[in-house]
Amino acid sequence: MNIKFRLILMNFFQFFVWGSWLLTIGAYWFQTKQWTGTEFGAIFSTMGISSLFMPAIAGIIADRWINAEKLYGSFHILAAIVLFLIPSVNNPSVMFWVMLINMIFYMPTIALSITVSYSAMKNANMDIVKEYPPIRVWGTIGFITALWIISLTHLETSAAQFYVASFSSLLLGLYSFTLPKCPPLGKGHKNSMVDALGLNAFKLFKNLKMALFFIFAMLLGASLQLTNAYGDTFLHDFAAIPAFKDLLAVKYPAIIMSISQISETLFILTIPFFLRKFGIKKVMLLSMIAWILRFGLFGYGNPADGLWMIILSCIIYGMAFDFFNISGSLFVETQSDPSMRASAQGLFMMMTNGFGAFLGSRLSGIIIDKYFLLEGGKFDWKGIWLAFAAYSLAVAVLFAILFKHKHDPSSMKDKNLAH
């Protein structure tokens, strides 16, 4: 079988598993189980908690002892077992621990899928820079496909979404053992534990500019979790209003939300132009402004005459996500010493998907329960989204003032960022 097609299949199901429940678990949580926002925030924080340590541990194992494709497959099979058990959980505290175990198995597979892809492509003498992005984009397509399947089959409030995720995770796990071998390359290397865990990258915090960058990466990571956690639930709640309950956006909210992922695939293509034209600071500021609009449009939108605001918010998400995450990764690549670039990228992911995701998930749940619940336990969605928009505005203003990086097109580092 063609290696490119095999890697496309792997990437498709890698994110199909996640898309089966990530944006729809809120509807299941609040409408079917009727548990609280604080408890829901704890559930979403499991991604952040697991991202703090599991990718590093999995990397050490794959570098020293076990083939990456075998470790990758084992994690997906174990995650499939946990996902299958989720529908039987009837206590939010137990659900936290079950979901944490699921995330412990799933989150390291994101990095391992990249490792397997790069290894297979190098062995096949493929041009990774040119040929990997068209392969990786199938991961986003897999995420979108899962959203559409869950929505069209009306499983958004059903525990069956976890069975879909479990079955696809099991298939991917078994399929992974047929992938090209990716043996450990670190056997015999006597790296210190500090180097192995990527902790040497923390010396970047000695540089004020990099320290500020990583802090803002954490704050933007919190924004990403807010939109993942509450977007689908927001649209579902319109079903309780007779004027809105039969509208397309209320019947199939996951399909509407999937516009965000479609937009994401398109904005990736515009990054080189924006970096070349405006430089890294302005591009990241555009991302932060996009987050303000993302939340603000949700605050004023509705599924009827305000549907255009919701759709525009989903389109803007592509800029909000890509312009910080991808541009930020490029910035880290060019600003860190070659001896620690991999560790620096790990630190970037730790700040966004680790600390940022954890703080955004936990604090948002607590704040919503305390300040944005109406009589009868209904959410004050306008207040929630505008509060998130105000948070994003504060982050953008502070970033504009504090982060010092002048764009110089003649600079080799900025040239690297532009291409």
Describe this structure in words.
The protein contains 18 helices and no strands. It has 419 residues and is mostly helical. The protein folds into two domains: 181 residues, MFS general substrate transporter like domains (Growth Hormone, Chain: A), CATH 1.20.1250; 219 residues, MFS general substrate transporter like domains (Growth Hormone, Chain: A). The longest helix has 32 residues. It is globular, with a radius of gyration of 21 Å.
Properties at a glance:
single chain, mainly alpha, Growth Hormone, Chain: A, 75% helix
Summarize the structure.
The chain is mostly helical and 419 residues long. It has 18 helices and no strands.
Total DSSP E strands? 0
* CATH-scheme architecture of the largest domain: Up-down Bundle
Order of helices and strands: HHHHHHHHHHHHHHHHHH
Relative helix content = over 70%
CATH topology name of the largest domain: Growth Hormone, Chain: A
Low-confidence stretches: 410-419
Largest beta-sheet details: none
Say which CATH homologous superfamily of the largest domain is assigned: MFS general substrate transporter like domains
List the topology elements.
Layout: H1 3-19, H2 25-33, H3 37-51, H4 54-64, H5 68-85, H6 92-123, H7 128-152, H8 160-176, H9 193-196, H10 208-236, H11 248-251, H12 253-267, H13 271-278, H14 280-300, H15 307-335, H16 341-371, H17 381-402, H18 412-418
